[in-house]
Amino acid sequence: MREGDLAPDFELPSEQGATVRLSEELEKGPVVLFFYPKAFTSGCTQESCHFRDVGAEFAALGARRLGISADPVERQKEFAGKYELGYPLLSDTDRSVARLFGVKRPGPLFNKRATFVIDTDRRILRAVHSEIHMERHADEALAALRGRPDNS
Length: 152
Description:
Helix content is about 35%, strand content about 20%. It is of the alpha/beta class. The two termini are about 25 Å apart.
């Protein structure tokens, strides 16, 4: 998926057991969907906590954060609770959504780290790909949201 592409709709279970559907989240405002390889690994913890730490900035822009990995719901719940993340973590155990967004790696390898800023019309405003710069994902997502016509 690249900037300007139409994001595919999907639904997945959250760490709270609720079903989250992208189109329903977009009715509330733009969505920042970030794929991370595996809960409790150092890079994913750093990235997820940075998304947590700048949560007020996302809220001020009317944006919702959604984290997604192939971890099962129970592990997502444990991860969210331990670090008090405060936003939904979605469980994509078969990596079907990762495949739709082009971040699924072959075989048993973990998904690629990528963030997609999705506007309310389902258009991708920004795609961030970086495996090593953990804070870049949230920071670039915020910059893209600030650049939306509604926020000028």
